[in-house]
Amino acid sequence: MNDASINIAGREIGRGRNPFVIAEIGVNHDGNMARALRLVHAAHEAGADAAKFQMFDAEMLMSLDSVLAVYQRENGARDPRELLRGLQLSATDLGVLATECLRIGLIPMVTVFSLPLVEHARKQAWQVFKMASPDLVNRPLLRAVAQLGRPLIVSTGAATRAEVAQAASWLRDIDDVAFLQCVSSYPTPDLCASIGAMHDIAAITGRATGYSDHTSSLDTGALAVAAGACILEKHLTYDRNATGPDHGASLDPVQFSAYVQLARRSWRMIGDATKSLHDVEHDVRRVSRQSLVAAHDLAAGHVIEPCDLSMKRPGTGLSASAFDEIVGRTLVRGVAENRVLVAEDLA
């Protein structure tokens, strides 16, 4: 992974830093404002850094030729425009949610799906914008959102390497941009999670890179962090069994809290990338390393030969690594059999 970073609300996010965890509320409020507010608070209580919503208008987004994805049909939807109309919150309501996020200490994020809505979002308190995977190739929308001058996170689900590179080139003059590896399958099977593709995306884009998680597992975020993700996005719902397109690929508040804790534990356990001796290791190092030990009684003035030495614990004497350097040295005092040699024993 590269050393690129993105600055969000004064926080530098990048490799080696505490992962930035996004609770993707999306449409899991089912078009209910009170439920959306409860999910904002659930995200905060679960330890998320940000809560993300989707700003769309069904008529703006869906043509008469629109069709449902298989997972949407499997979750009971019959008509794509009818589905989205039932999940829609007004731009005004979404602005209230952004303000509530700020009030309780969450970073508000939004995905805008249509050009006419960008201006609405610009006037609101959204601190970060997100491009949905399908709009990675939507140059007019990508350009409009990028020009808002706020941090931008781009998902790459169902995209090719060439499309990721193309989007990165369109955004090359924008400062705070990150990309997320994503698999657009709800839920994503383990064998298709493709966490490792983050490294390819990081190499292609030269940007901070994370993982948008559509698996059903609690530990996927932790695995992604261990693989180098500095941003995680995960759907949050009030009930995984609720009717709707995304509930089944989401976590409930208790599960989401565990997900966040696992991800942060993973980050803590990775630690510094430099190999170093830790304070907690000193005791074991002292008692378990082997020192040079007198194989038999050695008198003062004796010139040490290989047969005079053995290697035994503890590691409080001259290190076994010094064997070749000690042979040929003269003792200034006697050393009893089975006792460690120390520097003061030698001339």
Instruction: Just give the CATH class of the largest domain.
Output: Alpha Beta
Order of strands, main sheet, comes to 3-4-5-6-7-8-9-10
Residues in helices, as a percent range? 25-40%
- Report mean pLDDT, rounded to a whole number: 96
Strand tally: 12
Task: Give a quick account of the main beta sheet: strands, pairing sense, barrel closure.
Answer: 8 strands, parallel, barrel
Order of helices and strands: EEEHEHHHHEHEHEHEHEHEHHEEH
Describe the structure.
This protein is of the alpha/beta class and 347 residues long. The chain has 2 domains: 266 residues, TIM Barrel, CATH 3.20.20.70; 67 residues, Antifreeze-like/N-acetylneuraminic acid synthase C-terminal domain (Type Iii Antifreeze Protein Isoform Hplc 12, Alpha-Beta Complex). Helix content is 33%, strand content 17%. The strands form 3 sheets. The protein has an 8-stranded parallel β-barrel with strand order 3-4-5-6-7-8-9-10, surrounded by 6 helices. It has a two-stranded antiparallel sheet with strand order 1-2. Strand 6, helix 7 and strand 7 form a beta-alpha-beta unit. The chain is elongated, with a radius of gyration of 29 Å.
